[in-house]
């Protein structure tokens, strides 16, 4: 496999300074190496170049080789100069300004929720339940809220109970669960959905430890509604799959809480 200056099948050595080439303006980037998990790219930014705020779905490390710049990460300004190392977790908003010509190595590593965190078997089983979730989705989510509010009445105050009564919240949750079932092996397709839900969760003060409550209620509801179709295998797969989805939300929501507090 060769997707850059080097090939993953052979060892490779370079003196990064020798590879630096500054454009007159803007950015010149060179992919040094790419494998299944990481991509190593040399970035050379001409003095004055600015990259507006954006996010990456993968963890990233900036290792500065030379020059001067400012990296704004989660609203915090970090001075970039030779030898500075910055780790940026996936989805952290960041922007960059090159005060002088600036060269750094960017290492993108596989995002924290790669496909292989869920086994192929789990993916197959979860996907096979999608038609059932489409058919019984709202029955499952209505049941889920019933179970949750019965066992944990304290969470009720976070919810708009009229959206429970008119069925709109169970319908939204059913759509989210179904979308996840169909896209479990392509989480990036769910990014806008995750963004919207995570912001709603932050607005209603959802906490990481509450994911276990929702998880146990949702799994119980799936079991109750699907009956015989909720085999041991299906339940094991959904338990694993729920944990991955919960982590996606927990991580994103922590970032939003941090940003709101800064
Ligand atoms: C993976 C698990 C979860 C999924 C898929 C999920 C999904 C959703 C969706 C689709 C919405 C509607 C967003 C909108 O209005 O556009 C929502 C809202 C909400 N969720 Fe979650 N959620 C999850 C976990 C949790 C947890 C752990 C809590 C904590 C109790 C929670 C509490 C809420 C609240 C309070 C709202 C606002 C509802 C309202 O306005 O009445 N969710 N969620």
Automatic annotation (TrEMBL):
Domain of life per record: Bacteria
Transmembrane spans: none
One Pfam family per UniProt: Globin
A GO molecular-function descriptor: oxygen binding
Keyword Transport: yes
EC number: 1.14.12.17
Keyword Plastid belongs to the record: no
GO BP term (any one): cellular response to nitrosative stress
Keywords of this entry: Dioxygenase, Heme, Iron, Metal-binding, Oxidoreductase, Oxygen transport, Transport
Domain Globin: 117-254
Family annotation (InterPro entries): Cupin_2, Globin, Globin-like_sf, Globin/Proto, RmlC-like_jellyroll, RmlC_Cupin_sf
Family membership: Belongs to the globin family.
Protein name per Swiss-Prot or TrEMBL: Nitric oxide dioxygenase
Native organism: Stanieria cyanosphaera (strain ATCC 29371 / PCC 7437)
């Amino acid at each position: 496999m060769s997707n850059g200056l080097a090939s993953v099948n052979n060892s490779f050595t370079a003196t990064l300074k020798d590879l630096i080439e500054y454009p007159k303006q803007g950015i010149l980037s060179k992919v040094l190496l790419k494998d299944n998990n990481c991509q190593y790219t040399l970035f050379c930014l001409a003095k004055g170049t600015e990259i507006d705020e954006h996010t990456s779905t993968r963890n990233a490390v900036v290792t500065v080789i030379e020059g001067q710049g400012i990296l704004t990460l989660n609203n915090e300004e970090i001075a970039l100069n030779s030898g500075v190392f910055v780790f940026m977790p996936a989805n952290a908003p960041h922007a960059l300004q090159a005060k002088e010509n600036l060269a750094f190595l960017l290492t993108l590593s596989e995002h924290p929720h790669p496909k292989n965190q869920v086994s192929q078997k789990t993916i197959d089983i979860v996907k096979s339940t999608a038609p059932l979730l489409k058919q019984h989705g709202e029955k499952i989510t209505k049941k889920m809220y019933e179970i949750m509010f019965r066992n944990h009445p304290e969470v009720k105050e976070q919810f708009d109970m009229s959206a429970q009564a008119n069925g709109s919240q169970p319908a939204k949750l059913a759509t989210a669960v179904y979308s996840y079932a169909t896209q479990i092996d392509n989480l990036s397709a769910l990014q806008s959905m995750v963004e919207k839900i995570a912001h709603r969760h932050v607005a209603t003060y959802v906490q990481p430890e509450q994911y276990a409550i929702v998880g146990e209620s949702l799994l119980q509801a799936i079991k109750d509604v699907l009956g015989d179709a909720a085999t041991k295998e299906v339940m094991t797969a959904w338990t694993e799959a729920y944990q991955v989805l919960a982590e996606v939300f927990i991580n994103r929501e922590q970032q939003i809480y941090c940003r709101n507090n800064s």
